Every structure is written in C-alpha cells, then in structure tokens.
Amino acid sequence: MKLNKLENLKRQNFNTFNEYLNKLNKIGNDIYFNKTKKKISKKINEINNDQNIYNRKRTFSKRQRLILKILSGNKCSKCEKKLTTKFHADHIIPYSKEGKTNLNNGQALCETCNLIKGDSYG
To answer: Which domain range does residue 98 map to?
Structure first.
C-alpha cells in the first residue's frame, strides 16, 4: 500500500516543491495513522473481550442495596439480626472469584457476618 501511494506520487506533476512535500507528508501521516488506528482498535477489542475482573463494577448501587435490604426482610441473611444503615451488600459468589455485581449474586449482611465471611462462598 505504501509503495503504491509513493509510486503514484512520483507520476504526479507538482507546481512547487512544497506542494510535493505536503503531499508526501500526507501519505506518511495516512500510513502512520492507519497503523496507529489499527493498534488502538486491536487494544480496545482486547480490553472489551478480556474477562479481567478490573473491567467489572465491584460495588452495588444505592438502588441495588435498597432492594437487597428489602428482599432480606431488613435482616442479615446469615444471623438474622436487624440491619442498620451500615449493612453490607455482599457478593454470594465473591467478586474476587469472578462473582458478578447483580441482585442474583447479592445478599444483605450485617457488618460482623460479612467480615467473618471474607471472600468465601455463601
């Protein structure tokens, strides 16, 4: 592709040397930007396809927290103590073990139970 553009450039008639240089510079920039654009697109695709835990949302939203609290009956899902405003919205399958941050994988726990649970399942 590069050679074809340069060969075409040689066949063109230019009024000034600056016009020739501008055209040559444009070809160089096109080639550079096309390569850069391909590299960037490839990197974006790698990131989008990567199942890395850093690409996922870790914390439950305020709305999700409220729903988890209502679903649990305003009680800790483990010890059944009444939940305070400082309750923990916890991942049943831990986030660190590829657990998703959604209502199906969430539970409302008191602070004590969540700290005991740590990153174990359940």
So the answer is: 57-117
Residue 99 lies in a domain: yes
Q: Distance (Å, rounded) from C-alpha 37 to C-alpha 93? A: 39
Return the residue matching tokens 């602070």: 111
Contact between 97 and 90 under an 8 Å Cβ cutoff? The reply is no
CB atoms within 10 A of CB 116: 12
- Count of domains observed in the chain: 2
Per-residue confidence band for 89, with pLDDT thresholds at 50, 70 and 90: very high
Instruction: Give the separation between CA 12 and CA 20, rounded to whole angstroms.
Output: 9
122 within a domain of the structure (yes/no): no
Long-range contacts of 85-91 (CB under 8 A, 24+ apart): 86/111, 87/111, 88/113, 88/114, 89/59, 89/60, 89/64, 89/65, 90/114, 90/117
